């Protein structure tokens, strides 16, 4: 339990660090993927584990799609952190479970219950409150859209992982982190004007922290805790991540939330949690 809660808390602080990194979002994502993969490989080595190369080869197409989706998910998430409040970006990103519910009948040929569809509708209404479209005041709608695009890419990662067979979590994560860096490298080289920016020491330091702490360390804690926890607890305590992000947004950065925004946050997180817990109850 302590490892899992610590991992979720670390994930929740990433927006705060990204906000102070004066680098393009794609560059931060590349650093996170590359250094994070190396650090996770080190953790695997220290734990005395070995990668299952046969399983990796069998699952390579799904691993590649997941890795690419992971990299672009980070780009849009980091861009969202820069363009809107951390709370709004995080809540837009937490539409991922709702996107999965809506697309599961098409991608996985799964039937979705009426209750889950109600959860999706509730979360969508909550997102509309966050965006400010009802009040006509949506000054940061581009940041919210970036968060929603990030959620779409993360949903792609989740769907890709559904097609993985007989492969361990360390093999999956280390390969997807590595592949995300491999996919992002040519994208960064061809899309970034390196002469237009000169990162300061703080930006470089925080980028390394995001790669090591928020990726290598947090993933290591996460996967060491998962086998010891019940699925229901995993689902419930995963919401420590957005809770920490929202609290930091309000009390550290002083980013205010409107009454409509608070109601929207409760609707989004409540609907996402309810949809996950009902699924677990039926599977039990």
TrEMBL record:
InterPro entries xref list: EamA_dom, EmrE-like
Q: Start and end of every EamA domain?
A: 5-131, 143-273
Q: Which UniProt keywords apply?
A: Membrane, Transmembrane, Transmembrane helix
Enumerate the transmembrane spans. Answer: 5-21, 27-48, 60-78, 90-108, 115-135, 141-160, 172-190, 202-222, 234-254, 260-280
Question: From what superkingdom does this record's organism come?
Answer: Bacteria
Show the PANTHER family listed in the entry.
Answer: ACYL-MALONYL CONDENSING ENZYME-RELATED, MEMBRANE PROTEIN
* Name this polypeptide is given: EamA family transporter
Q: Which organism is it from?
A: Sutterella massiliensis
């Amino acid at each position: 339990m302590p490892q899992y809660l610590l991992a979720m808390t670390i994930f929740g602080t990433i927006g705060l660090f990204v906000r102070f990194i004066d680098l393009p979002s794609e560059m931060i994502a590349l650093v996170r993927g590359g250094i994070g993969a190396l650090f996770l490989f080190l953790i695997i080595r220290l734990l005395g584990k070995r990668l299952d190369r046969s399983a990796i080869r069998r699952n390579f197409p799904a691993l590649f799609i997941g890795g690419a989706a992971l990299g672009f998910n980070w780009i849009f998430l980091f861009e969202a952190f820069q363009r809107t409040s951390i709370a709004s970006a995080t809540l837009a990103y937490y539409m991922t479970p709702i996107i999965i519910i809506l697309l599961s009948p098409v991608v996985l040929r799964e039937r979705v219950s009426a209750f889950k569809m109600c959860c999706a509708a509730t979360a969508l209404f909550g997102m509309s409150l966050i965006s400010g479209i009802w009040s006509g005041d949506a000054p940061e709608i581009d940041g919210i859209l970036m968060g929603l695009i990030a959620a779409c890419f993360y949903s792609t990662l989740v769907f890709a992982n559904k097609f993985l067979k007989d492969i361990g979590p360390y093999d999956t994560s280390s390969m997807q982190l590595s592949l995300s860096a491999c996919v992002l490298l040519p994208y960064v080289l061809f899309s970034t004007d390196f002469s237009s920016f000169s990162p300061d020491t703080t930006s470089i330091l925080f980028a390394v922290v995001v790669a090591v702490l928020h990726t290598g360390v947090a993933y290591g804690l996460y996967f060491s805790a998962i086998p010891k926890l019940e699925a229901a607890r995993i689902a419930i305590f995963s919401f420590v991540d957005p809770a920490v992000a929202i609290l930091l947004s309000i009390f550290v950065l002083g980013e205010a939330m409107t009454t409509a925004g608070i109601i929207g946050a409760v609707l989004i997180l409540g609907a996402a949690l309810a949809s996950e817990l009902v699924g677990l109850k039926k599977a039990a």
